[in-house]
Amino acid sequence: MARRVMGWVLILFTLALVGCDHATKAAAQAALERRGPLSIVPGVLDLRYAENRDMAFSLLRGIESPAKVAILFVCSILVLGVIIAGWWSSRRASATEQAGYALIVAGAIGNAIDRAFRGYVVDFIHLHSWPVFNVADMAIVAGGILLAIVMFRRARQEPSEAS
Fold first, then answer.
1. Percentage of the chain exceeding pLDDT 90
2. Which DSSP letter does residue 128 get?
3. 25 touches 124 (CB < 8 A)
4. pTM here?
């Protein structure tokens, strides 16, 4: 019973995070699209509207094709499917691992929705010396960190095969 409740809580958390991501993107677009960066912490943090028509860190910037948006969307859906399958196979795992998967899925859904409906991802948080990002990106990174912590703890608990 408790696992079932936890599952629903995680699903609701994921949906709420997707909503938060899109609300912040809409607010950023409305407030920042036609103006320059808004300095929050001078020299450190700005709010700056950007349309990311590529993938993370502009890894495909050299590819110019009308099919690029469709390819990026299909790839994001495939990766999302793999992550959801991993989450499903780990459904009896710890709350920390479940939260990690929920964060990654929420971020991936948020950015995939952007690609599907806009053809690009809205980014607006700019830490100087780092590319502009959004709430979905933060969720993906936080989820990845949680999963890395879980895997590190699991590796430390398993007896060494070298002994």
1. 58
2. T
3. yes
4. 0.85
Of 99, 111, 112, 88, nearest to 144 by C-alpha is 99
Whether pLDDT at 57 is above 60: no
Q: Is the dihedral of CA 32, 34, 39, 44 positive or negative?
A: positive
Question: How many CA atoms are closer than 13 Å to the CA of 116, on its beta-carbon side?
Answer: 10
Per-residue model confidence as pLDDT tens digits over 82-122: 999 988 888 888 889 999 999 999 999 999 999 889 988 99
CA angle 139, 144, 51 (to 5 degrees): 45
> Mapping DSSP to helix (H, G, I), strand (E, B) and coil, where does residue 89 land?
helix
Nearest to 122 by CA among 61, 113, 64: 113
Q: Under a CB-based contact definition with an 8 Å cutoff, are residues 104 and 157 in contact? A: no
Pairing type for strands 38-41 and 45-52 reads antiparallel
Determine contact, residues 99/10, Cβ cutoff 8 Å: yes
Give every strand in the sheet of 45-52, ordered side by side. Answer: 38-41, 45-52, 121-127
- Which active-site residues does the annotation give? 123, 137
HSE of 48, CA atoms in CB hemisphere, 13 A = 17
Select from 99, 122, 97 the least CA-distant residue to 11: 99
